[in-house]
Design brief:
FAD/NAD(P)-binding domain, 8-stranded mixed sheet, alpha/beta, binds flavin-adenine dinucleotide, 20 strands
């Protein structure tokens, strides 16, 4: 086409009339357009070629995010992208803690808040939680913390908004003779803190908690207001309310690095680019450890694996709708959590010392684990000896040396805050954790009961001392 136009132009160059000159100018313009068109065409062709190469590469990278965020991080590090975004507060992790913190900050108008979750809201430990809500703790400050959080679960629709699935089932704690004294002291402490809990004779357990066996139980306590919630629904409610207050909740965005300049946090590097912020909150459970380490902070958090068995109760025990009281059987070292659909979830209260890789661990249960948990459950609630195992899963705890969380401002990296180390009992505390962290970030002050959860307590010999031998009981 270009050659054809050139020949016509040459022919018209010999025409000397006025019309001919006009015609010549018209074709001159046409010539210019054709040249420009051919250049644009060439440029478009180059772009298409590049897109053909890069589109499949981008799709492949997306799949790799789910398969291995580490691989994506490495890919990312080979790229250099410019700073494109900023926020006032960044939160890493979309579990119940990150969501509660985002909600509490956003409702106070704390500026532009962005929560970054590498998978989807609740896909970490929270989604695997038993979500038992109890006030049974062995230190006065943890009892108060649990009591305040319980009040939020009880009035969730009014205080936060939405349905967190809380049902007050009541809870029994069962002990043999060896556990009598610890239980007595703890119940007294709880009563002093205003918890509605009574110590009862082991022989009367089945009267307050129908279905439970009185056998081998020396002493028990009954906490009427305890219950269970839905961990996913709770987290979604917090996240949704945070959104309504202006926070951005971004799923599928992995944070690869915390950005630090001198002693201050500058923001984060993500697989989608860097985001500047003067405040970063690390609420990424066991995955926080590697991110913190890169900015010189050692979080003493060990990932440990904990199985949970789902049993279909025999239909003569509560049917599909019935919910029995929660049980903490200190003798058999299990907890029993009623779920809807005639299911009871059984977990172990035993501490696990061996560390697991939180990205590559056995998520299913072994036949031995199923048999053991089922046998133990049948001891606590005899009807469960006839229950059908309906699967189960294992989740990861983020254990600290004293099985209590670290809730603090990291002064080695000003502007960085941590809410990690919930050691298998954090869900029930999430409403208060959100409030405390928001207060610390916005006013620089800690609630009195937050003081014991300082980061430096381990090096200062001020570890929290739970009264029970099992860490998860707190
Ligand atoms: C089997 C089991 C039973 C439990 N039972 C109870 C119970 O009955 N009662 C109770 O109170 N507690 C219980 N817990 C503990 C409770 O579930 C946890 O303490 C709580 O859910 C922790 O919430 P989180 O937000 O800190 O962590 P998570 O829910 O794990 O959230 C952290 C999030 O960070 C994301 N993330 C990680 N790395 C990155 C990154 N680089 N970039 C972006 N995002 C990232 C993860 O994908 C994850 O979604 C149980 C836990 C388990 C495993």
């Amino acid at each position: 086409m270009f050659t054809f136009a050139a020949i016509i132009l040459l022919a018209f160059q010999n025409i000397r009339t006025q019309e001919g000159a006009k015609l010549f100018r018209a074709f001159d313009t046409l010539h210019f357009c054709l040249v420009s068109y051919s250049r644009i065409y060439e440029a478009l062709q180059s772009c298409l070629l590049l897109l053909q190469i890069s589109l499949p590469a981008a799709n492949l990278e997306n799949r790799n995010v789910l398969a291995s965020s580490r691989m994506r991080e490495d890919t990312y590090l080979q790229e250099t992208r410019s700073m494109t975004e900023s926020a006032d507060i960044l939160i890493i992790g979309g579990g119940v803690m990150g969501a509660s913190i985002a909600y509490n900050l956003a409702k106070q108008g704390a500026g532009r808040i962005v929560l970054l979750e590498r998978q989807a809201i609740g896909n970490g430990t929270t989604g695997r939680s038993g979500a038992i809500v109890r006030q049974h703790y062995s230190n006065d400050f943890t009892i108060r913390m649990a009591r305040e959080s319980l009040a939020v679960f009880q009035h969730f629709a009014d205080l936060v908004g939405g349905d967190c699935g809380f049902v007050a089932t009541g809870m029994v704690v069962l002990a043999d003779e060896t556990g009598r004294e610890a239980l007595r002291v703890n119940v007294q402490l709880q009563q002093e803190q205003g918890v509605n809990v009574q110590l009862i004779d082991g022989k009367t357990v089945s009267e307050v908690a129908s279905g439970y066996s009185n056998e081998d139980i020396a002493v028990a306590c009954y906490e009427r207001d305890a219950g269970v919630a839905d961990p996913m629904a709770t987290t979604y409610c917090f996240a949704q309310r945070a959104r309504e207050h202006g926070a951005a909740i971004r799923e599928g965005v992995t944070v690869t690095h915390i950005l630090k300049q001198q002693d201050r946090v500058r923001g984060v590097r993500t697989v989608e680019g860097d985001i500047y912020a003067p405040v970063v909150v690390l609420a990424a459970n066991v995955w926080s450890r590697r991110l913190a380490q890169a900015v010189g902070i050692n979080l003493p958090v060990t990932p440990t694996r904990h199985p949970m068995l789902a049993l279909r109760r025999p239909n003569d025990f509560g049917g599909r709708q019935g919910l029995h009281p929660v049980g903490l059987d200190l003798t058999r070292k299990i907890y029993l959590r009623p779920d809807i659909g005639g299911i009871t979830l059984i977990g172990s209260t035993e501490d696990v010392l061996a560390a697991s890789d939180p990205d590559h661990y056995a998520e299913g249960l072994s036949p031995e684990e199923i048999a053991h948990l089922r046998n133990m459950a049948g001891g606590s609630i005899p009807a469960l000896g006839r229950a059908v195992p309906r699967g189960g899963w294992a989740g990861i705890y983020d254990d600290t040396p004293d099985y209590h969380p670290i809730l603090d401002h990291m002064h080695a990296c000003e502007g960085l805050y941590c809410a990690v180390g919930f050691s298998g009992h954090g869900f029930k505390l999430s409403p208060v954790i959100g409030e405390w962290m928001a207060r610390l970030i916005l006013s620089g002050t800690k609630a009195n009961d937050m003081q014991p959860f300082a980061y430096n307590r381990f090096e200062q010999g001020q570890e929290i001392q739970p009264r029970y031998p099992s860490g998860v009981l707190g």
